[in-house]
Amino acid sequence: MPGTESVDRSSCTCSCKDGWHGVLCLPLEVPDTVVPPVAERAADGDTSCVVNQTLKSLTLNMWKTHHCYLGVTFSGVGAVLTFFFNSMPLHLPINITLTGCTFRGGAALQFVGGVEAVESSGVLIRVSQTVMRSSVVVFALALPQHCDIVVTEVDAVQSSAVHLPETVTKMLSVVMLHEVVLSASSLLVSNVKAHATRYGGYGLYSIGTLTLVGGSSLYTRYCNFDGYTHLFYLNILSVSDHSVFALLNNTMASGASLLYQYSRSSVSDHSVLRVV
Question: With a threshold of 0.90, does the pTM exceed it?
Protein backbone atom coordinates (compact mmCIF):
# COMPACT_ATOMS: atom_id res chain seq x y z
CA MET A 1 0.00 0.00 0.00
CA PRO A 2 1.35 3.50 -0.78
CA GLY A 3 0.86 4.64 2.83
CA THR A 4 2.96 1.83 4.32
CA GLU A 5 6.18 2.88 6.01
CA SER A 6 7.39 -0.62 6.93
CA VAL A 7 6.10 -4.17 7.33
CA ASP A 8 6.79 -6.57 10.21
CA ARG A 9 6.41 -9.92 8.49
CA SER A 10 6.67 -11.90 11.73
CA SER A 11 3.52 -10.30 13.14
CA CYS A 12 1.90 -9.34 9.83
CA THR A 13 1.55 -5.69 10.92
CA CYS A 14 2.32 -2.45 9.14
CA SER A 15 3.52 0.92 10.29
CA CYS A 16 2.07 3.84 8.36
CA LYS A 17 3.46 7.06 6.99
CA ASP A 18 2.18 10.33 8.42
CA GLY A 19 -1.41 11.00 7.37
CA TRP A 20 -2.22 7.33 6.76
CA HIS A 21 -4.32 5.26 9.14
CA GLY A 22 -5.39 1.80 10.25
CA VAL A 23 -4.06 -1.69 9.78
CA LEU A 24 -4.21 -1.22 6.01
CA CYS A 25 -2.66 2.28 6.03
CA LEU A 26 -5.58 4.01 4.37
CA PRO A 27 -5.69 7.77 3.66
CA LEU A 28 -8.64 8.25 6.07
CA GLU A 29 -9.40 7.28 9.63
CA VAL A 30 -11.37 4.07 10.01
CA PRO A 31 -13.42 3.61 13.21
CA ASP A 32 -12.56 0.58 15.28
CA THR A 33 -16.22 -0.29 15.84
CA VAL A 34 -18.93 -0.91 13.29
CA VAL A 35 -21.63 1.77 13.30
CA PRO A 36 -25.02 0.02 13.40
CA PRO A 37 -27.64 1.05 10.84
CA VAL A 38 -30.32 3.51 11.82
CA ALA A 39 -33.17 1.63 13.44
CA GLU A 40 -36.35 1.24 11.41
CA ARG A 41 -38.86 3.94 12.25
CA ALA A 42 -41.41 2.70 14.75
CA ALA A 43 -45.02 2.76 13.60
CA ASP A 44 -47.49 4.89 15.51
CA GLY A 45 -50.04 2.53 17.05
CA ASP A 46 -52.35 5.28 18.31
CA THR A 47 -55.94 4.05 17.87
CA SER A 48 -57.73 7.20 19.02
CA CYS A 49 -60.52 8.69 16.90
CA VAL A 50 -61.13 12.26 15.70
CA VAL A 51 -64.70 12.95 16.82
CA ASN A 52 -67.26 15.66 15.98
CA GLN A 53 -64.89 18.29 14.62
CA THR A 54 -64.98 20.61 11.60
CA LEU A 55 -61.70 20.54 9.69
CA LYS A 56 -60.72 23.06 7.02
CA SER A 57 -57.09 21.98 6.71
CA LEU A 58 -55.34 18.69 7.35
CA THR A 59 -51.94 17.28 8.26
CA LEU A 60 -51.85 13.49 8.39
CA ASN A 61 -49.37 11.20 10.10
CA MET A 62 -48.87 8.55 7.42
CA TRP A 63 -46.94 6.31 9.82
CA LYS A 64 -50.04 5.54 11.87
CA THR A 65 -51.60 2.10 11.54
CA HIS A 66 -55.08 3.29 12.57
CA HIS A 67 -56.95 6.31 11.18
CA CYS A 68 -60.41 6.95 12.59
CA TYR A 69 -62.87 9.79 11.97
CA LEU A 70 -66.33 9.84 13.54
CA GLY A 71 -68.88 12.57 12.79
CA VAL A 72 -66.22 14.86 11.32
CA THR A 73 -67.02 17.60 8.79
CA PHE A 74 -64.39 18.24 6.12
CA SER A 75 -65.08 21.69 4.68
CA GLY A 76 -63.49 23.45 1.70
CA VAL A 77 -60.73 22.75 -0.78
CA GLY A 78 -58.12 22.74 1.99
CA ALA A 79 -59.78 19.73 3.61
CA VAL A 80 -58.67 17.08 1.14
CA LEU A 81 -58.04 13.92 3.18
CA THR A 82 -55.35 12.01 1.27
CA PHE A 83 -53.81 8.68 2.25
CA PHE A 84 -50.54 7.86 0.47
CA PHE A 85 -50.05 4.11 0.82
CA ASN A 86 -46.40 4.21 -0.21
CA SER A 87 -45.71 6.32 2.90
CA MET A 88 -47.51 3.96 5.29
CA PRO A 89 -46.14 1.00 7.34
CA LEU A 90 -47.65 -1.67 5.10
CA HIS A 91 -45.71 -4.40 6.91
CA LEU A 92 -48.37 -3.94 9.61
CA PRO A 93 -52.17 -4.16 9.24
CA ILE A 94 -53.68 -0.77 8.33
CA ASN A 95 -57.17 0.28 9.42
CA ILE A 96 -58.88 3.40 8.01
CA THR A 97 -62.42 4.13 9.20
CA LEU A 98 -64.70 7.09 8.47
CA THR A 99 -68.21 6.93 9.94
CA GLY A 100 -70.90 9.59 9.78
CA CYS A 101 -68.61 12.17 8.17
CA THR A 102 -69.49 15.07 5.86
CA PHE A 103 -67.46 16.31 2.90
CA ARG A 104 -68.55 19.65 1.46
CA GLY A 105 -67.45 22.62 -0.60
CA GLY A 106 -64.67 20.91 -2.54
CA ALA A 107 -63.40 18.67 0.25
CA ALA A 108 -62.42 15.19 -0.93
CA LEU A 109 -61.26 11.78 0.22
CA GLN A 110 -58.32 10.27 -1.67
CA PHE A 111 -56.47 6.95 -1.51
CA VAL A 112 -53.26 6.99 -3.57
CA GLY A 113 -51.18 3.93 -4.42
CA GLY A 114 -48.01 3.54 -6.46
CA VAL A 115 -46.72 2.26 -9.78
CA GLU A 116 -47.29 -1.36 -8.73
CA ALA A 117 -49.39 -3.27 -6.20
CA VAL A 118 -46.93 -3.79 -3.36
CA GLU A 119 -47.27 -6.50 -0.73
CA SER A 120 -49.02 -5.57 2.51
CA SER A 121 -50.21 -7.16 5.73
CA GLY A 122 -53.74 -6.06 4.90
CA VAL A 123 -55.46 -2.70 4.44
CA LEU A 124 -59.01 -2.35 5.78
CA ILE A 125 -60.96 0.73 4.62
CA ARG A 126 -64.51 1.48 5.74
CA VAL A 127 -66.35 4.64 4.62
CA SER A 128 -69.96 4.62 5.79
CA GLN A 129 -72.92 6.92 6.53
CA THR A 130 -71.25 9.70 4.56
CA VAL A 131 -72.75 12.99 3.38
CA MET A 132 -71.15 14.49 0.28
CA ARG A 133 -71.89 17.96 -1.08
CA SER A 134 -69.90 18.73 -4.25
CA SER A 135 -67.22 16.31 -3.08
CA VAL A 136 -65.66 13.10 -4.36
CA VAL A 137 -63.96 9.88 -3.25
CA VAL A 138 -60.85 9.10 -5.31
CA PHE A 139 -58.81 5.91 -5.68
CA ALA A 140 -55.62 6.35 -7.69
CA LEU A 141 -52.93 4.07 -9.12
CA ALA A 142 -51.98 0.57 -7.93
CA LEU A 143 -53.33 -0.03 -4.44
CA PRO A 144 -51.47 -2.38 -2.08
CA GLN A 145 -52.30 -6.06 -2.24
CA HIS A 146 -54.87 -7.41 0.22
CA CYS A 147 -57.04 -4.28 0.40
CA ASP A 148 -60.59 -4.73 1.72
CA ILE A 149 -62.50 -1.54 0.84
CA VAL A 150 -66.15 -0.68 1.44
CA VAL A 151 -67.85 2.63 0.58
CA THR A 152 -71.47 2.44 1.68
CA GLU A 153 -74.50 4.48 2.75
CA VAL A 154 -73.54 7.67 0.92
CA ASP A 155 -75.89 10.63 0.49
CA ALA A 156 -74.45 12.80 -2.30
CA VAL A 157 -75.63 16.02 -3.94
CA GLN A 158 -73.35 17.55 -6.57
CA SER A 159 -73.72 20.95 -8.17
CA SER A 160 -70.09 21.52 -9.21
CA ALA A 161 -67.06 19.42 -10.11
CA VAL A 162 -64.25 19.04 -7.60
CA HIS A 163 -60.82 20.25 -8.68
CA LEU A 164 -57.98 18.05 -7.42
CA PRO A 165 -54.35 18.97 -8.20
CA GLU A 166 -53.41 15.31 -8.87
CA THR A 167 -56.32 14.79 -11.29
CA VAL A 168 -56.41 16.53 -14.64
CA THR A 169 -60.05 15.68 -15.30
CA LYS A 170 -62.88 17.55 -13.58
CA MET A 171 -66.16 15.70 -13.55
CA LEU A 172 -69.32 15.43 -11.48
CA SER A 173 -68.62 12.04 -9.92
CA VAL A 174 -69.17 10.42 -6.55
CA VAL A 175 -66.32 7.91 -6.94
CA MET A 176 -63.37 8.44 -9.26
CA LEU A 177 -60.88 5.70 -10.20
CA HIS A 178 -57.63 6.94 -11.73
CA GLU A 179 -55.50 4.18 -13.36
CA VAL A 180 -56.49 1.87 -10.50
CA VAL A 181 -54.99 -1.60 -10.05
CA LEU A 182 -56.59 -4.02 -7.59
CA SER A 183 -54.48 -7.09 -6.79
CA ALA A 184 -55.86 -9.74 -4.42
CA SER A 185 -58.18 -6.97 -3.21
CA SER A 186 -61.85 -6.04 -3.08
CA LEU A 187 -63.73 -2.76 -3.55
CA LEU A 188 -67.44 -2.54 -2.78
CA VAL A 189 -69.53 0.57 -3.49
CA SER A 190 -73.06 0.10 -2.19
CA ASN A 191 -76.19 1.95 -1.13
CA VAL A 192 -75.15 5.25 -2.67
CA LYS A 193 -77.93 7.77 -3.27
CA ALA A 194 -76.65 10.58 -5.47
CA HIS A 195 -78.24 13.55 -7.23
CA ALA A 196 -76.49 15.86 -9.70
CA THR A 197 -78.08 19.26 -10.15
CA ARG A 198 -76.13 19.76 -13.38
CA TYR A 199 -76.53 17.07 -16.05
CA GLY A 200 -73.53 15.41 -17.64
CA GLY A 201 -71.61 13.66 -14.89
CA TYR A 202 -70.77 10.03 -14.22
CA GLY A 203 -71.65 8.41 -10.90
CA LEU A 204 -68.49 6.31 -10.93
CA TYR A 205 -65.78 7.45 -13.33
CA SER A 206 -62.77 5.32 -14.28
CA ILE A 207 -59.94 7.25 -15.94
CA GLY A 208 -57.30 5.31 -17.87
CA THR A 209 -57.19 1.56 -17.27
CA LEU A 210 -59.01 -0.19 -14.45
CA THR A 211 -57.17 -3.45 -13.72
CA LEU A 212 -58.39 -6.33 -11.56
CA VAL A 213 -55.99 -9.23 -11.00
CA GLY A 214 -55.26 -11.99 -8.50
CA GLY A 215 -58.84 -12.81 -7.56
CA SER A 216 -59.84 -9.19 -7.03
CA SER A 217 -63.40 -7.90 -7.14
CA LEU A 218 -65.18 -4.61 -7.74
CA TYR A 219 -68.88 -4.60 -6.95
CA THR A 220 -71.31 -1.68 -7.34
CA ARG A 221 -74.71 -2.55 -5.94
CA TYR A 222 -77.97 -1.07 -4.62
CA CYS A 223 -77.02 2.44 -5.79
CA ASN A 224 -79.37 5.11 -7.12
CA PHE A 225 -78.11 7.94 -9.32
CA ASP A 226 -80.22 10.84 -10.58
CA GLY A 227 -79.04 13.48 -13.03
CA TYR A 228 -75.95 11.60 -14.26
CA THR A 229 -75.33 10.61 -17.88
CA HIS A 230 -73.87 7.21 -16.96
CA LEU A 231 -73.86 5.32 -13.70
CA PHE A 232 -70.40 3.84 -14.37
CA TYR A 233 -68.11 5.25 -17.06
CA LEU A 234 -65.18 3.02 -18.04
CA ASN A 235 -62.32 3.89 -20.33
CA ILE A 236 -60.35 0.61 -20.44
CA LEU A 237 -61.16 -2.44 -18.30
CA SER A 238 -58.88 -5.43 -17.72
CA VAL A 239 -60.19 -8.29 -15.56
CA SER A 240 -58.06 -11.42 -15.20
CA ASP A 241 -56.96 -14.27 -12.94
CA HIS A 242 -60.30 -15.21 -11.30
CA SER A 243 -61.39 -11.60 -10.75
CA VAL A 244 -64.90 -10.12 -10.85
CA PHE A 245 -66.35 -6.81 -12.05
CA ALA A 246 -70.07 -6.49 -11.36
CA LEU A 247 -72.91 -3.95 -11.31
CA LEU A 248 -75.86 -5.38 -9.37
CA ASN A 249 -79.34 -3.98 -8.71
CA ASN A 250 -78.52 -0.33 -9.40
CA THR A 251 -81.02 2.24 -10.68
CA MET A 252 -80.98 5.56 -12.52
CA ALA A 253 -83.87 8.03 -12.42
CA SER A 254 -82.53 9.54 -15.64
CA GLY A 255 -79.51 9.17 -17.88
CA ALA A 256 -78.22 7.11 -20.77
CA SER A 257 -76.78 3.88 -19.36
CA LEU A 258 -75.74 1.92 -16.30
CA LEU A 259 -72.36 1.03 -17.84
CA TYR A 260 -70.62 2.96 -20.59
CA GLN A 261 -67.49 1.47 -22.16
CA TYR A 262 -65.49 4.16 -23.97
CA SER A 263 -62.61 2.09 -25.32
CA ARG A 264 -62.22 -1.65 -24.71
CA SER A 265 -62.43 -4.39 -22.12
CA SER A 266 -60.59 -7.65 -21.56
CA VAL A 267 -61.95 -10.47 -19.39
CA SER A 268 -59.80 -13.60 -19.14
CA ASP A 269 -58.52 -16.45 -16.97
CA HIS A 270 -61.85 -17.52 -15.45
CA SER A 271 -62.89 -13.95 -14.63
CA VAL A 272 -66.38 -12.43 -14.72
CA LEU A 273 -68.00 -9.20 -15.93
CA ARG A 274 -71.65 -8.97 -14.91
CA VAL A 275 -74.32 -6.27 -15.14
CA VAL A 276 -77.76 -6.95 -13.68
Answer: no
Least confident of 25-29, 186-190, 240-244: 25-29
Q: How far apart are CA 175 and CA 189, in angstroms?
A: 9
| 60, 83 Cβ separation under 8 angstroms | yes
Task: Give tens-digit pLDDT for 177-229.
Answer: 999 999 999 999 999 999 998 887 899 999 999 999 999 999 999 999 999 99
Query: Side-chain half-sphere of 94: how many Cα atoms within 13 Å?
Result: 29
Percentage of the residues of the chain whose pLDDT score is greater than 90: 66
Spatial separation of the C-alpha atoms in residues 132 and 265, rounded to whole Å: 31
Length of the chain: 276
Of 235, 222, 127, nearest in space to 171 by CA: 235
The answer to whether 74 touches 98, Cβ cutoff 8 Å, is no
- pLDDT band at 21, cuts 50/70/90? low
Instruction: List the one residue out of 100, 98, 108 whose CA is nearest residue 71.
Output: 100
pLDDT for position 38: 43
Secondary structure (H, E, C), the chain: CCCEEEEECCCCEEEECCCCECCCCECCCCCCCCCCCCCCCCCECCCCCEECCEECCCCCCCCECEEEEECCEEECCCCEEEEEHHHCCCCCCEEEEEECCEEECCCEEEEECECCCCCCCCEEEEEEEEEEECCEEEEEEECCCCEEEEEEEEEEEECCCCCCCCCCCCCCCCEEEEEEEEECCEEEEEEEEEEECCCCEEEEEEEEEEEEECCCEEEEECCEEECEEEEEEEEEEEECCCCEEEEECCEECCCCEEEEEEEEEEECCCCEEEEC
